[in-house]
Specification:
Number of helices: 12
Pfam families: HTH_18, Response_reg
Order of helices and strands: EHEHEHEHEHHHHHHHH
Strand content: 5-15%
Number of strands: 5
Helix content: 55-70%
CATH superfamily of the largest domain: Response regulator
Protein name: DNA-binding response regulator
Organism: candidate division WOR-1 bacterium RIFOXYB2_FULL_37_13
CATH architecture of the largest domain: 3-Layer(aba) Sandwich
InterPro entries: CheY-like_superfamily (IPR011006), Homeodomain-like_sf (IPR009057), HTH_AraC (IPR018060), HTH_AraC-typ_CS (IPR018062), Sig_transdc_resp-reg_receiver (IPR001789), Tscrpt_reg_AraC-type_HTH (IPR020449)
GO molecular function, one term: DNA-binding transcription factor activity
Number of domains: 2
CATH class of the largest domain: Alpha Beta
Shape: globular
Length: 247
Amino acid sequence: MAYNILLVDDEQAFREEIKECLEEYEVFEAGDGEAALKILKEPNEIDLIVLDYMMPGMKGTEVLSRIKRDNPNLPVIMLTGYGSKEVVIKALREDAEDFLEKPVNVEKLKNTIDNIFSKKQIEQNKEKGEIDNEVARVKLFIERNCYKKVSLEGAARAVSLSSKYLSRLFKKEAGIGFKEYVQQVKVASAKELLLKTGMTVSEISYKLGYENPETFIRLFKRVTGGNPSAFRKKGKSLKVPAKNRKR
């Protein structure tokens, strides 16, 4: 399986050097934190990020924090020319997978990346089984990008198929249309957020990629038969109060 890496560093010469050393992977580039976050905001198949600490604008740890807020399972390797213990601790607290000092030892970087992807492959195989057909890959793409606007065209590009062909193939193999499947995934994510967070319905709507909360509420009601607020209230009422639990 070919993995995609996003390399975030303000030095173009360094990016070119690292990209050449990681020729077995598809490497995308960003010159600063804002550019990286813009790439991640769109539907994508980025599997790992190599992130520099010292860049113009946002520092690497701030970028890391924002990445993990929206993509908690996306592994990040932090790079820096500043070997201070404080920076290392802050990066690891923000759930960076590893921390390497500049000048980067390329072999050590490659070994770190290989180890992360080996663990990732084992986990994916356990959860999903081997992803050996286009529809399974598209389903995974939708699930990984459920907090963004997911289009048929974007999914088709991700698996190198035409939109029309993917639309027919998806409905044939999944037994449901592409749009309907995306909506089901988003509603399932909304249910989890309603029960496990204190986010408002509007905040959940925006997080799931809907600009108008009313559109999201209508979708939720059509899929579940009730509105989000009622679902949250019912879910909370089903929880047994602590004082009534059996010890």
